[in-house]
Amino acid sequence: MSERHDKEAAAPRQEVLGLSEEGRPLCLFWAGDPAAHLRVLVVGEQHGDEPRTRSAVEHFVSALPATAAVCLAAVPSLNPDGAKRRQRTNARGIDLNRDHLRLTAAETRALHSFVRRWRPHLVVDVHTYPPRRHTLLRHGLVHCHDLFLDAATYPGVPRGTVTARNESLLPRLLTALGVRGYLSGRYVVTTPTGKVRHSTTDITNLRNGLALRYGIATLLVEGRELLRRDTLADRARLLAGLRDAIEIGTEWAVHNPQMFKVPQCPTGKRMAIRCRHARSDCACTILFHDAETGVARAAAMPGTYFGSIKTTRRVRVPAAYAVASTHGALLEVLRHHGFEGLPGRAIGASMLAGIAAPGLRRTLQDYLLFPVTADGGQALVTYLEPRSKYGLWRYPDLGLAESRAADPVIRVPAEAPSQ
Ligand SMILES: [Zn+2]
């Protein structure tokens, strides 16, 4: 018995998370101490044309000692079909890092299903970024940061979740990377409209999507892609930088266990559903390489800097949302997120007792009810509110805006109105 266990411990622990659209296995590797309280998930190669992310995750897993104070799960390649074709998207042309709301791809569905089961405290999402961008080259600039980092930015993420606003995350990680000799900064980009901002607030990506749905701390790591002038030593350093960023993020989690709290149910509270990037007074000045000479120089990111995020609309969170049972496509998205609706007619006394209007009670007979008190139910507010900036109403194929039913989604109030 013990001999068999020894053999199991010595072998690399791995399992198959699921299958890609073309049937390739999505491999999951386990490392560290299976009994550790802290759970960290690392995901590489969501984008099939970023093979160095897979290598970095594999290096990190193989070097992590079994005595590490963390139980680590790692998916070096979430997009093996894209990697096979050296393309960004999966075999069906879906950008996986824009699919964490709809979950239309087999790969993202498999990942979410695992996250729901295993509940990591921290997810590290590893990418690479192109240093030569049109908006910069026009100004003779090339990005020279070894690494850019960011964390969740969507303001509807449950209270208490570690996000980019949290002082103890990004500044500390960037300092730690600096100590190891890497030039790193918070991810910043110039959009086609000339807006300089940090990473998107949209919940379609892994960072904001998982943080919203599960209250998980999420860290984006973007390593610089190679330039023609990079030496072999540069290449090795950039790969080591990706691996070190995963390590530093994991170490931060080990030393800050108090940061990981279970999000509280937001029913009755007000939650952000719309936001915008707010303009800063100053420019965003960072270090670049001169496109001609390769010499480093500080310069302002071209464009107007929108450095912070402002919530522009909140709603009071109801007890539940009711979705018309005719809206199969919407119900399927919710099911992929682990939300099973309760038939309105089966609810009866407990919940419907709080609804004063008999008309509404009758209407709900043809609806499925999704209580916001369900595990991770705060995400329903973002998904289902008609005015939600990043909700499901924005997808015409879900047919919510043109619904023939008068109300495809009904808010079920939190408290009985006084009579
Ligand atoms: Zn990427």
Architecture blueprint of SSEs:
Blueprint: H1 2-10, E1 13-19, E2 25-32, E3 39-43, H2 51-63, E4 71-75, H3 80-85, H4 106-118, E5 122-129, H5 134-137, E6 141-143, E7 147-151, H6 170-179, E8 184-186, E9 189-190, E10 195-197, H7 206-214, E11 217-224, H8 232-255, E12 270-278, E13 285-290, E14 296-300, E15 304-306, E16 308-316, E17 320-324, H9 328-336, E18 342-343, H10 344-347, H11 349-352, H12 358-363, E19 367-371, H13 378-384, E20 409-412
Parallel strand pairs: 3-4, 3-5, 5-11, 7-8, 10-15
Antiparallel strand pairs: 1-2, 2-4, 6-13, 7-11, 9-10, 12-16, 13-14, 17-19, 17-20, 18-19
The structure holds zinc ion (ZN).
Number of strands: 20
The proportion of strand residues reads: 25-35%
| Largest beta-sheet details | 8 strands, mixed
Which shape, going by the Cα principal axes? globular
Briefly note the structural class of the backbone.
Answer: alpha/beta
Distance between the termini: 68 Å
User: In DSSP terms, counting alpha (H) and pi (I) runs of 4 or more, how many helices?
Assistant: 13
The side-by-side strand order for the widest beta sheet comes to: 1-2-4-3-5-11-7-8
